[in-house]
Design brief:
There is one protein chain. Strand 25 and strand 26 form a beta hairpin. Among the domains are: 57 residues, no CATH class; 141 residues, no CATH class; 65 residues, no CATH class; 261 residues. 21% of the residues lie in helices and 25% in strands. It is built from 18 helices and 39 strands. Helix 10 packs antiparallel against helix 14. The chain is of the alpha/beta class. The chain is globular. The strands form eight sheets. It has a 17-stranded parallel β-sheet that branches. It has a five-stranded mixed β-sheet with strand order 4-5-11-10-9.
Length: 755
């Protein structure tokens, strides 16, 4: 029988066509007998099977032309095209990288050994970002006359020439040590590379890899600190829950690799350094002077003074301000009416402030359109409190902690305050600012869009018992009504949005007199204000689905020191099937008369921050997990587990049924049919994860010190846990193989995971 391919799902009705075509070819006598026989429709069923295979053949014929092109061909055809080119294939599990590699084979061979190609391999094979550094350029040595002149990128933050003595007076340069943008010169290191040691040598080529993604959020309600605090409401966090989370810069690499250029720090999806956000360089051009005269009333004498510094570059605002202060017209040039537009017009595009304050982060206050001008924004460490600054500044941003503070009169959320920013995370798990394809296929019955501020709410009357309610923004909603007659309810966030529902009481969803009801929550971030608050399911459900949701696991404090409380999912209903997919959950408990016949969790993280509370507690029914990370203990009746990490003690009542395969659990756990199974002591395993704190970019991500059973323990050789489908170890192997193929001869590749 011909194997059924993924093209057979096309809506071309070929199965129905061939079924009727073949059915008409059968004599009418046999067709009649098929309708009168004791087993009705046997002949018709055979015809349908034959028609299904005929449809597959027809589609294969239709695709014969497409299968000759790597961009359009089916997956099975890629090895045949690769064989024609004589290229080495990467793992079949990395389908994206395999197709890109074959498509670019000739292109890559022509550019073999160049930095542009090696950086492109990172992107095309793994879908990560990265920087390749030739470490011989960072060695301390005397410059040769044939050496190329240092480019502007080298020594961006100091005028130390390559190979020269380190400029220890610059804190900016000190922050870049051990990274791809290190400007210090080093002596040759002859030892074997280990971590970030032994990197500098003539033959060493270092690949700095950035595996986290930057996701954008628009019009988010910032978290205000209480006006009764010692800071009098002057500070806000970008994160709506009040967490200290670093801001990320978005990817800013050219899509056309023929336009490749050396990578700048702000081109990569990585946490933004405080000094990078305030890195500003200026140049005085004739168009700038003319604009100041035409639009802002600059006098002729002041313009004449500015012409004396025409086309001169200033590497900081302080240097520019010092120069302006030396002119006779200093009072006019430094007045806010002239100085602010002068900074805006003279700001060079090739600097951190120009890129990051336009693409990565912006704060919108009151009626200011387009956000606050970059020239009125500075960076500062605001963790310990607000800072004072020059009178020409209006806003301070701390990107490393995700805090901002206004200078002058403090604002509050009632003034129309909102922020746009990027956050970093490993993948599309939990509520987030990414694309969810299932949402495009659903047309909402009702839509909600909140106002700026912390007073948004969703009353019960706006939530239908049967229908689809869509929230169209990423604002904060501080109250949401409970429902008592749920029949077939869907509450979803609009694509690329992450609304934050922060309620003070329990949120109850009850079917009432309805039975066999359906409930779907999609793309929501749910948190609580008061301790012990939870989402409670009551009544009778046939199916409850939580997709791309975040039930805040808590376990942290905000900048003011107040605890961020966990939000538990409490089940007091009878549910035939509860599906949790690509979500981040707090504790899940079945209480009272509640019963879940089948609890299915896939590609998710479940966490209990209280050691006395189980992460998952289910007295009856089945629990099935597939690629899940559980921070906490598990107490269930019956368990089927696959490619899962459980860090707490696991107690299963019915060990005669169920299965525990390609997973890990602590020593002493009571498990069913472990195959294969690696008992691990998690007592001192905090370093096995980049972070267990929800809100950190590396939350739930396996660290490089994790045991081999976690890093490569999945059935396909990938990692265990929630991010198994990212196949990061397989991508890493693919990258190493292709780098070995295209790297210059005699060099030693070194791979460093920066995120």
């Amino acid at each position: 029988m011909i194997e059924k391919t993924n093209q057979s799902v096309a809506e071309d009705q070929f199965e129905a066509y061939f079924t009727e075509k073949i059915w008409e070819m059968i004599p009418a006598f046999y067709r009649t007998e098929d309708g009168l026989a004791e087993s009705l429709g046997v002949l018709r069923s055979i015809v349908e099977i034959i028609a299904e295979q005929a449809a597959i053949l027809r589609r294969s014929q239709d695709r014969l032309w497409d299968d000759q092109f790597i961009e359009l061909c089916s997956h099975w055809a890629i090895p045949y095209i690769a064989d024609l080119l004589g290229t080495r294939l990467v793992s079949a599990l990395n389908q994206r990288g395999r197709r890109a590699d074959v498509a670019n084979t000739i292109y890559q061979r022509r550019r073999s050994g160049t930095l542009r190609l090696l950086e492109q391999l990172i992107s095309s094979i793994t879908d990560w970002d990265g920087v390749v550094v030739e470490k011989f350029k960072r060695l301390g040595r005397n410059r040769h006359g044939l050496d190329p002149h240092p480019t502007r990128l080298e020594g961006r933050f100091s005028k130390t020439p390559p190979g020269g003595t380190a400029n220890l007076r610059s804190p900016q340069i000190a922050e870049l040590v051990n990274g791809p943008f290190n400007e210090f010169a080093h002596t040759a290191d002859l030892c074997r590379p280990r971590g970030k040691d032994g990197l500098f040598g003539i033959h060493k080529l270092v690949f700095y890899l950035y595996r986290l993604k930057a996701y954008q959020l628009l019009e988010v309600t910032p978290f205000p600190f209480p006006s009764h605090s010692q800071f009098d409401g002057e500070r806000f966090t970008f994160d709506p829950s009040g967490r200290l989370t670093p801001l990320f810069s978005p990817r800013n690499r050219p899509d056309d690799w023929d336009e490749w250029r050396p990578t700048r720090e702000w081109d990569l999806p990585k946490p933004i350094r405080c000094r990078l956000l305030s890195h500003a360089e200026y140049i005085m051009e004739f168009a700038t002077i003319q604009s100041l005269m035409d639009d802002y009333g600059l006098t002729e004498s002041a313009a004449t003074s500015l012409e004396t510094i025409l086309n001169q570059e200033f590497r900081s605002e302080a240097r520019l301000k010092e120069t302006l202060n030396s002119f006779d017209e200093a009072s006019e040039l430094l007045s806010l009416a002239i100085y602010i537009p002068l900074l805006d017009e003279a700001l060079m595009l090739d600097c951190g402030k120009a890129h990051l304050l336009s693409l990565a982060v912006s704060v919108h206050a009151g009626v200011v359109e387009g956000g606050i001008s970059p020239s009125r924004i500075n960076s500062a460490n605001l963790k310990m409190g607000p800072k004072t600054d020059s009178p020409d500044k209006r806003l301070l941003i701390d990107p490393e902690n995700g805090i901002f503070s206004f200078l002058g009169d403090p604002l509050n959320n009632e003034d129309g305050l909102f922020v746009n920013y990027h956050y970093g995370f490993s993948g599309e798990i939990g509520a987030g600012g990414y694309y969810r394809p299932q949402v495009d296929n659903i047309i909402p019955d009702n839509e909600i869009e909140g106002a700026h501020g912390n007073n948004n709410g969703i009353p019960s009357a706006q939530i239908p018992n049967e229908g689809i309610l869509q929230i169209n923004d990423s604002k904060t909603y501080t109250s949401i009504g409970s429902k008592t007659k749920v029949k077939n309810l869907t509450i979803q966030a609009k694509n690329f949005n992450r609304p934050y529902l922060r309620f003070a009481g329990d949120w109850s969803l009850n079917t009432g007199v309805n039975t066999e009801s359906f409930l779907t929550l999609d793309g929501l971030w749910i948190g609580a204000v008061e301790p012990g608050r939870k989402v409670v399911l009551r009544g009778d459900y046939e199916c409850v689905t939580l997709s791309h949701c975040t039930f805040d696991p808590g376990g942290d404090v905000d900048l003011f020191g107040e605890p961020i409380l966990p939000t538990a999912l409490i089940i007091e209903a009878r549910i035939d099937q509860l599906i949790i997919n690509q979500s981040i959950m707090g504790p899940i408990r079945v209480e009272g008369d509640g019963l879940v016949e089948s609890l299915v969790i896939c590609d998710s993280i479940v966490q209990s921050t209280d050691n006395t509370v189980d992460a998952i507690q289910q007295n009856l029914g089945d629990l099935k997990t597939d690629r899940v990370t559980v921070f906490g203990s598990v107490d269930v009746h019956r368990l089927w587990v696959n490619e899962t990490i459980i860090t707490g003690e696991t107690d299963v009542t019915d060990t005669q049924n169920g299965c525990f395969r390609f997973s890990v659990a602590p020593t002493g756990s009571r498990l069913p049919r472990p195959y294969p199974y690696a008992p691990i002591s998690f007592t001192a395993s905090s370093h096995w994860f980049t972070s267990r704190r929800f809100g950190d970019p590396g939350y739930g991500q396996l660290s490089e010190t994790a045991p081999f059973d976690l890093q490569r323990g999945a059935e396909n050789g990938s990692e265990l846990g929630a991010f198994s489908t990212l196949i990061n170890p397989i991508k890493s192997d693919s990258l190493r193989a292709k780098v070995a193929e295209y790297m210059p001869f005699g060099l030693l590749p070194i791979f460093i995971n920066e995120t």
